[in-house]
Amino acid sequence: MHGFANPARFLRLARWLTPLMLLAGLVLVAGSLIHSYFNMPPDRLMGDSVKILPLHVATAWLGMGGWTTIAIASLVELVWRHPLAAIAARAAAVPGAVFTFVCLATGSIWGRPTWGTWWVWDGRLTSMLVLLFLYFGYIALSGALAREGASSRIAAIFGLVGAINIPIINRSVVWWNSLHQPPSITMGNSAIDPVYLWPLLVAVAGFSLLFGGVVLARMRTILADMQAEARLRRKAMQVAEGL
């Protein structure tokens, strides 16, 4: 795990891996969404609104996956003091928030013709909205700590505490009587017809690659900003010593 703790080694890997993941992700996502819009047949109950399923489900999983990434990186930072863990957590926050917002927006669009309303305060929707607010809080907190040069351990603790919401989101449709449908995909089993399942899985794979590529790109940007700030500080100290 510490083999990539050296920023130079990490940057060498990320330099070629970032565009590869972004390009592969774009191809898979575009293929899945185009196929869903033009070729996916209407569902017997949901009609044409089923075409939004690959986008909605994929972004829901990646919204939760983004916070899971933050929690794992936070744990690594607190326990093993990995120098890139805090940067990885910060880098995952913004794309995770974007996926969560898209999930909520597409769910609202899907819910209007299906449920007859844009929003209901059921367990799944409410816990997903809480996740979006947690993202906003984490982004603000980690950004403020970085600007002040304070320890990122406070943000890491927040990342671990916020992870409590992930199993709540996952099990909310089982624990509470909900308008939201129960889990359609479980371990080793699926209640979704293959004509809808395969575009969904391709979308999940594509968005996962996009998420990974964006996280790597943001990590490279954060490292570049940190290195530029360190150079400015050294120059300032040299100027001060010369005076």
From TrEMBL:
<comment type="similarity">
    <text>Belongs to the CcmC/CycZ/HelC family.</text>
</comment>
<feature type="transmembrane region" description="Helical">
    <location>
        <begin position="196"/>
        <end position="217"/>
    </location>
</feature>
<keyword id="KW-1003">Cell membrane</keyword>
<dbReference type="InterPro" id="IPR003557">
    <property type="entry name" value="Cyt_c_biogenesis_CcmC"/>
</dbReference>
<feature type="transmembrane region" description="Helical">
    <location>
        <begin position="123"/>
        <end position="142"/>
    </location>
</feature>
<keyword id="KW-0201">Cytochrome c-type biogenesis</keyword>
<comment type="function">
    <text>Required for the export of heme to the periplasm for the biogenesis of c-type cytochromes.</text>
</comment>
<feature type="transmembrane region" description="Helical">
    <location>
        <begin position="154"/>
        <end position="176"/>
    </location>
</feature>
<keyword id="KW-0997">Cell inner membrane</keyword>
<feature type="transmembrane region" description="Helical">
    <location>
        <begin position="92"/>
        <end position="111"/>
    </location>
</feature>
<keyword id="KW-0812">Transmembrane</keyword>
<dbReference type="InterPro" id="IPR045062">
    <property type="entry name" value="Cyt_c_biogenesis_CcsA/CcmC"/>
</dbReference>
<feature type="transmembrane region" description="Helical">
    <location>
        <begin position="58"/>
        <end position="80"/>
    </location>
</feature>
<keyword id="KW-0472">Membrane</keyword>
<keyword id="KW-1133">Transmembrane helix</keyword>
<keyword id="KW-0813">Transport</keyword>
<dbReference type="Pfam" id="PF01578">
    <property type="entry name" value="Cytochrom_C_asm"/>
</dbReference>
<protein>
    <recommendedName>
        <fullName>Heme exporter protein C</fullName>
    </recommendedName>
</protein>
<feature type="transmembrane region" description="Helical">
    <location>
        <begin position="20"/>
        <end position="38"/>
    </location>
</feature>
<dbReference type="InterPro" id="IPR002541">
    <property type="entry name" value="Cyt_c_assembly"/>
</dbReference>
<feature type="domain" description="Cytochrome c assembly protein">
    <location>
        <begin position="15"/>
        <end position="180"/>
    </location>
</feature>
